[in-house]
Amino acid sequence: MNSSGDAQSASQRVEGLNDSVPTFLVRLRNRKLRAALLEMPRYFFNVMIGKQEPIADPEGDLLPGDAAARRHAKAVARDMLSNRRLYTRGLDRWVFVVTDQRGRLVARVPFKSCG
What residues does each domain of the chain span? Predict the structure, then answer.
């Protein structure tokens, strides 16, 4: 059986699991840790450039709460600003629009506030 078949059969054994759960969680043997990670909310770090519609973050990140999501957005923005030669011009016009898994706005983090 291939690895995708293994993951599928494992995912069927985990109650309430759907396709949006990463494979590593399916295979995690520590039940308490797996339960804690599955309970963590997923945050999406959508990027808005100027007044354009935000560019959606399709995957998001599991983080323990809103404050952690804001810290993460600021840290990523700082990192991108420090490596601005790798990115397009105008990073100072970029804004992270952070939403949770229900679509609730958690924070707007302008890159220029993180430099």
Answer: 3-39, 42-113
